[in-house]
Amino acid sequence: MSQLHEAQRRADPIRRYVAPESLEDALEVLAAHGPSARVVAGGTDLLLELSRGARTGIDTLVDLSVLDGLDTIVERDGRIELGPLVTHADVVSSKRMLTAGLPLAQACLEVGGPQLRNRATVVGNIVTASPANDTISALYALGADVTLASASGGERTLQIEDFFTGFRTTALEHDELVTKVSFDALGGTRRGIFVKLGLRKAQAISVVHAAAVVTDADDGTVADLVVALGSVGPTIELVPDAGSVAAGRPLAQAASDVAAAARAAAAPIDDLRSTAEYRSHTTEVVVKRALLSLAARTEADTWPERPPRLMAANGAADASGAGRMPQREITDGSTINATVNGKERRASNSARRTLLDWLRFDLGLTGTKEGCAEGECGACTVHLDGQAVLACLVPAARADGAAITTVEGVAPPDGGLHPVQQALADCEGVQCGFCTPGFVMSSVMLASEEPNPSRAQVEHGLAGNLCRCTGYYSIIEALMGSGVPGAAEPVS
Length: 492
Prior knowledge:
By secondary structure, this protein is α+β, with helices and mostly antiparallel strands. The chain has four domains: 6-66, Uridine Diphospho-n-acetylenolpyruvylglucosamine Reductase, domain 2, CATH 3.30.43.10; 73-295, Uridine Diphospho-n-acetylenolpyruvylglucosamine Reductase, domain 3; 316-409, Ubiquitin-like (UB roll), CATH 3.10.20.30; 419-482, [2Fe-2S]-binding domain (DNA polymerase, domain 1, Orthogonal Bundle), CATH 1.10.150. The chain has 18 helices and 20 strands. It has helices spanning 23-33, 46-51, 88-93, 97-100, 102-109, 114-119, 122-128, 134-142, 160-163, 242-246, 251-265, 276-295, 316-319, 355-362, 419-426, 436-449, 455-461, 473-482, and strands at 16-18, 37-40, 60-63, 73-76, 79-82, 145-150, 154-159, 164-166, 169-170, 176-184, 190-197, 208-216, 222-230, 237-238, 329-330, 336-340, 343-347, 381-384, 387-390, 403-405. The chain is globular.
């Protein structure tokens, strides 16, 4: 084993999956199992880290996603509070966040594709603590606080810059979890923006990104300015002189000087996405771009109209057809029960598997494909409780008590094609076919959500799916003309 490359070595197996009955129950489980237990909500970062051996010694997952009431975005006394299960999709879909927390909403829209955003949480993004994670710089600029809780120590609240202790490290103890992220709502004299430079428009890890929040003085000059840089150095960086350089000046006039100060303050790194020299240059460009947009009050102009979420019209909460509470603890010997394509299905081998492997190997539903096994291609897209998700990044045990639709379940029982499938065939939107099941599942949900989508909505809705053959034009043509009402219901 020692002679194998790290990518070939078998990761430590997960032996136990716990679905707690309450937040307090989850904290007790963490306290009982110590460092061998980890909280999972979306799991889009954690499952990858486990499979790659980046996190070792973990044999128990505590899944908060089964709990109600933790996915709320509320406003109290002028502060926005995000619960621990608030997903990037929740933020993007919140009209209040477009005014009260625009930089965070813009950052969340940059995370992965729609399927990943349906599962991935804001809290998970900050706990992973990568300097490339888009939401962290937005929360830095917003001056956010992070509230932690444990069974033994109760609650404590840290300013977000104190939550991070280094590259991919945080102040979170093994028996703690994040219960809330909060910040003062933007509005009035405070405005903000998030700007990202990536190597493509969707599903791109940042080369450089920046978030800025400006406070306007009564005379139209800058009273205060906060600028945070991400994906530049090993940690998120605040530009120390941003406020003093801009204070008392019109923002448009100060933008070049603040951008130069950002470049001077940055400690850029070399990696596979960029050289340090290029990062240094583009830091200045991105910051200036952000500040000039704020100065022109065009910070929200690029926000898309009704970006698709790929969620059933009746919402995830009402889509579960199984109607059962999940088992509290699942091991590989446990049998889990799910409603798959309208039928009750049972299988074991669930604690250490992903939903993708469970569907393919234990249920024999091989239509769902493994393309990348890291949430970047969309070939494994399925519907889980009324939402499009990436099966490669969902623990199989999460299927217990859930309703799942795979590509085998979208066609009518008479043996014909679903209208989306027919449209793809008619428009020659299929070539090798390997990516097609994922495109079908995303497209069926998109057609349910937006029966007559615009081209921009089709492009946003399919941004989480990659095709190496068609060039996408025929797929987009098929979706623009399919007009499929009520397409997300599984057949029975």
